[in-house]
Each structure stands twice: as structure tokens, then as C-alpha cells.
Amino acid sequence: MTTDSFNDYPAHDGVAPDRWASALHLFDNGAGAPHEETALERWERAQLLFGARDYIGAARLLADVVEEAPEQTGPRLLLARSYYHSAQLGRAEEQLRYIVDRDPVEHYAHLMLGRTLERQGRQEEAAPWLRMAAAFSGELPDGD
């Protein structure tokens, strides 16, 4: 069988995304040389882990990325989502409140904070956050 391109080759027994991410350094100019992973590489690897539903693994990487670049909303939001999906709701709430304090119009953070509070059984506290998220997205609930 002849293949015209690498993409034509059928994969067998998929490889975990973190294995691919951990091998990326082999294809750069320093192949085989010790390589300290940059914040960007950890961010990219965390996205792969999150996509593979390894929320705890993603959270471990993202905690370091957020510590290194606290002003970046994207990694902090993904960290909050990783905490949410791994049932670390207190940690998710902490990250989401930080985001909302710094960026009050980040509507997804409002939605996630409302959902996080709901999941903790704090429906009354969640309601204003969910209303705010709905208002930001233009989807006001019936009766409002």
C-alpha cells in the first residue's frame, strides 16, 4: 500500500494527547537536548489535556501558567473550567471571582460562576450571576 501523505496513514489505538505534546521538543532545533517547557508550551499541553478530558492534569499545568502570567484571562478561565469539571468547585469559584473582578464584562466567567454556585447548592447566590451572563449574551430568560 502506498500513501501519498502522512495524513492518509490510518492511526491505530490512539495516542494520548499529552504524549504528543511531550514529544514536540523532538521536532525543534534542539532535538534530544534537555528542554525546559515554556509557559506557552504548558498552556498548549494543558489545552490538549483538557480536550482529552484529563481535567486534573490540565489544572496542574494551568496553575503554573496562571502563576507565571496572572494577567492572562484565557489560562485562568481554562483553569476554572478544569477545576469545575474535576469537581474542585471552591477553586473554580475562586478563579472565576478573580476574573469577574478584573474583567466585569467577561460573560462566560459570569455563566461559569453561576453554574459553579448552583452545583454547590447555592442557587440564590447563583441567580444574579446567571442573569448577568444572560444579559451579556442577549438571551434574557422568559418573564424578565
Textual characterization of the structure:
The structure is a single chain. The chain has helices at residues 17-23, 39-51, 55-68, 73-85, 89-102, 107-119, 123-137. By secondary structure, the chain is mostly helical. The protein is elongated and about 60 Å long. The mean pLDDT is 85. Pfam families: TPR_16 (PF13432). InterPro entries: TPR-like_helical_dom_sf (IPR011990).
Question: Descriptors for this entry?
Answer:
single chain, Serine Threonine Protein Phosphatase 5, Tetratricopeptide repeat
SSE blueprint:
Blueprint: H1 17-23, H2 39-51, H3 55-68, H4 73-85, H5 89-102, H6 107-119, H7 123-137
Helix pairs in contact: 1-2, 2-3, 3-4, 4-5, 5-6, 6-7
Pfam family, one: TPR_16
InterPro entries: TPR-like_helical_dom_sf
Summarize the structure.
With 144 residues, the protein is mainly alpha-helical. It has seven helices and no strands.
- Rg over CA atoms, rounded to whole Å, is 19 Å
Write down the CATH topology: Serine Threonine Protein Phosphatase 5, Tetratricopeptide repeat
Number of domains: 1
User: Would you identify the regions where 5 or more consecutive residues have pLDDT less than 50?
Assistant: none
Number of strands: 0
CATH superfamily: Tetratricopeptide repeat domain
* Helix/strand structural class: mainly alpha
Shape: elongated
Strand content: under 5%
Order of helices and strands: HHHHHHH
Largest sheet: none
CATH architecture: Alpha Horseshoe
What kind of assembly state do the chains in view correspond to? Answer: single chain
On the 0 to 100 scale, the average pLDDT is 85
What portion of residues is helical?
A: 55-70%
Q: Count of helices?
A: 7
